[in-house]
Specification:
The complex is a heterodimer of chains A (about 160) and B (about 180). Chain A is of the alpha+beta class and about 160 residues long. Chain A is built from three helices and five strands; from the N terminus they run βααββββα. The mean pLDDT of chain A is about 95. The mean pLDDT of chain B is about 95. The chains are: A alpha+beta (about 160), B alpha+beta (about 180).
C-alpha cells in the first residue's frame, strides 16, 4: 500500500480539461466538473487502499450518496487543474469530504464538490463498515485535517442568494 | 435587455411538475462499479434542465444565435438507487423559485419502467449575457413565459429532498459542533 500523505489539505491530484469536456457554451460542462472531481476521489481512495484495485479484486466498492457542487468560475479546454481535498467527518462506513478545484497556474477557485462516500460490500452491494486497513488511514488523515477551517462552501443548502 | 426572441416559441407547457424529459443511460456513462457514474447523473439532469429551459424559450437557438446562455451556479444531487447501462429514465421538474435572472429547479429521476426513484437534483441556473459572459436579466419574453409556469408549480408541495445540508446524521452538524 502507498505511503499515506498527511498534508493538510490533501494536495496530490492534478488534471487537464479535456476537449470532450467542453460544451456549446465553450467551457467545461457541469457534468465533467464532477468527472474531474471523481478522479480526485479516486486519488483520495488510493490513499486508503480502497481505490481501483479494491473493486477489481472484488473486495469492495465505494458509492457516493450525495454530492453538492458550486461552480465558481469557468475553465476552458487545456486548462491545468489542481484539486485539494479536506476530510470533514467520517463514521464506521461513511466519509464526508470536500474537494476544491483551482486553476493550477492562475490559482483561482473554479469549483467545489462536497461529497458523502459510503463503503459497499462487493457481494451484497450494500453498505458495510470500512475495512480496518482503510479505517486506520482515514482516522490519520481526519486527524491531520481536524484543525483546518471549514470551507464556506461546505454544508450549503441550495437557494437563490440575494446579492 | 432582450425583449423578444427572434425565433418561434414552442407551445408553453404549464403542467406541474413538468414531465416531458426522457433519456437512456449510455454505455459510456457506466463506471468500474458497473453502474451509471455519479458525474453522468449530473449530465443527465443537465439535459432535463435543458428541457425546462427550452419550454421557457431558451434552448440551443438562444446560444447559437449569440443572444445569451444559461450557466449552472450550484447543484446538489442525492443518489438514491443505482442505474445500469441502457436503463430508461423519466424526469420530472419542479420550479421552486425564480428571480430576475435565476431559476431554482428540482428534478427527480425515475427508472422509466420499474418506476423507482434513482436520484434527485436541486439546481440554480442563471441567465448570462452572451457578449460579457456575465449575469443579466432574463429576456422579457422568457420572463413572461416563466410566470404561468411558476403559477402552476408554486402550488406543489416542497419536495422532502429539497434544501438538504450534507452531514452524517449522528450528533450536531459541522458548524454547530
Amino acid at each position: 500500500m502507498i505511503d499515506l500523505d498527511l498534508s493538510a489539505p490533501f494536495d496530490l491530484h492534478r488534471a487537464t480539461v479535456l476537449p470532450d469536456w467542453i460544451d456549446w457554451n465553450g467551457h467545461m460542462n457541469v457534468g465533467y466538473y464532477v468527472v474531474a472531481f471523481d478522479k480526485a476521489t479516486d486519488t483520495l481512495c488510493q490513499q486508503f487502499g480502497v481505490g481501483y484495485e479494491y473493486t477489481r479484486d472484488k473486495i469492495g466498492m465505494t458509492f457516493v450518496l450525495e454530492a453538492h457542487v458550486t461552480y465558481d468560475r469557468e475553465v476552458k479546454e487545456g486548462d491545468p487543474l489542481r484539486i485539494t481535498t479536506q476530510i470533514l467527518d467520517h463514521d464506521a462506513k461513511r466519509l464526508h469530504y470536500i474537494h476544491e478545484m483551482h486553476h493550477a497556474t492562475e490559482g483561482y477557485l473554479a469549483a467545489t464538490n462536497e461529497l458523502m462516500l459510503m463503503n459497499i460490500d462487493y457481494a451484497s452491494r450494500r453498505a458495510a463498515p470500512w475495512p480496518d486497513f482503510a479505517m486506520e488511514r482515514i482516522e490519520k488523515m481526519a486527524a491531520a485535517h481536524a484543525t483546518l477551517p471549514i470551507p464556506e462552501q461546505a454544508g450549503r443548502l441550495i437557494r437563490i442568494r440575494k446579492n | 435587455m432582450l425583449v423578444t426572441l427572434p425565433y418561434e416559441m414552442p407551445e408553453l407547457i404549464t403542467s406541474a411538475p413538468l414531465d416531458i424529459h426522457r433519456s437512456t443511460v449510455l454505455p459510456e456513462w457506466v463506471d468500474w462499479n458497473g453502474h451509471m457514474n455519479l458525474a453522468f447523473y449530473v449530465t443527465a439532469f443537465d439535459q432535463a434542465s435543458g428541457a425546462f429551459m427550452r419550454n421557457v424559450g431558451l434552448g440551443r437557438r438562444y446560444v447559437d444565435g449569440k443572444l445569451g446562455m444559461t450557466f449552472v451556479l450550484e447543484t446538489h444531487v442525492t443518489y438514491d438507487r443505482e442505474m445500469k447501462g441502457g436503463a430508461p429514465m423519466r424526469f420530472t421538474t419542479q420550479l421552486l423559485g425564480h428571480d430576475a435572472k435565476r431559476v431554482h429547479l428540482f428534478h427527480e429521476m425515475f427508472h422509466a419502467e420499474q418506476d423507482y426513484l434513482a436520484a434527485t437534483n436541486e439546481t440554480i441556473i442563471m441567465n448570462i449575457d452572451y457578449a460579457t459572459r456575465r449575469s443579466g436579466p432574463w429576456p422579457v419574453q422568457a420572463a413572461e413565459r416563466l410566470e404561468p409556469i411558476w403559477a402552476a408549480h408554486r402550488a406543489l408541495p416542497r419536495p422532502a429532498k429539497a434544501g438538504r445540508v450534507m452531514g452524517l446524521s449522528k450528533g450536531p452538524s459541522l458548524r454547530s459542533g
